[in-house]
Specification:
Strand content: 15-25%
Structural class: alpha+beta
Distance between the termini: 23 Å
Radius of gyration: 12 Å
CATH topology: GMP Synthetase, Chain A, domain 3
CATH superfamily: K homology (KH) domain
Number of strands: 3
Number of helices: 3
Shape: globular
Helix content: 40-55%
Amino acid sequence: MKELVELITKSLVDNPEDVVIKETAGESIIILEIKVGADDVGKVIGKEGRIANAIRTVVKAAAAKQGKKVTVEIITK
């Protein structure tokens, strides 16, 4: 899942080297935190959160195929 989120996020931003994905695995859920540069936060969130919701939808669908639950959070610096 981490690789999928990293690929999607790096393709959206102007500075892909600033993208950091932190994965925290719990007993029943995996939490992925996306950190990007200050200039790229709007590109990852999108208008009215549409891009962020699309990322979450794609990741949840991929996780469901593997029988896992994943939460994607966007962290601003």
